[in-house]
Amino acid sequence: MGLLLNLFFTFLKIGAVSFGGGYAMIPFIQREIITNHGWISSNDFMDIIGISQMTPGPVAINSATFVGYKVDGVLGSAFATIGVVFMSFVLVSIASKAMDKFKESKILKGALQAMRPVLIALIIQAFYDLALEAYVDFKAIIITVIVGFILFRTKIHPILSIVIAAILGIIIYGGF
Asked: Is the pTM of this model over 0.90?
């Protein structure tokens, strides 16, 4: 039961202090599950982020579910998932009432405006940390450039870009 509670409270903390959605939460999740607890390896974390991108739902929830399962099976995934969403549920319930009351407040508008650049910085940090793990060789950079070019030039659906990357990976890394 101790491990389950540890999963719950760890992901509760992640959910409580992480603003800006899943991508902004990645550095917090990474620090907690790899550095602080050692529950999974950096490679496993990269796989979890990749899988979280391919499955429906927010990255933070999918990550919590996968990490929880890896650490302590189905119960671990349930405790981690409930932990990561609990504070958001409570805060959104409170904030929705407060936002109606204070929506014209200059203080609230200023605070929300000031958070935007920080969220971008958190996303950039997550990109940087993940890039250090993902770019193990020149082939990975080639795949990134090709898929990035296709994404920016054609505006294809992100899922199709993942499929293209997988096909390129099979071809480039010699899966055929």
From this structure: no
User: How is the chain split into domains, by residue range?
Assistant: 2-134, 136-176
Q: Helix 106-134 to helix 22-30 angle, to the nearest 10 degrees? A: 60
Between vectors from CA 158 to CA 151 and to CA 163, what angle results, nearest 5°?
Answer: 95
Question: CA of 83: how far to CAs of 29, 48, 168, in Å?
Answer: 12, 18, 37
What the block records as the tokens of 155 is: 């505006």
Q: How does pLDDT run across 100-109, given as a tens digit for each residue?
A: 777 778 887 8
Give me the DSSP letters along 19-65: -SSHHHHHHHHHIIIIIIS--S-HHHHHHHHHHHHHSSS-HHHHHHH
The type of residue at 23 is Y
Q: What is the tens place of the pLDDT at every residue in 60-107?
A: 888 889 899 999 999 999 999 999 889 888 877 887 777 777 777 888
CB 45 within 8 A of CB 68: no
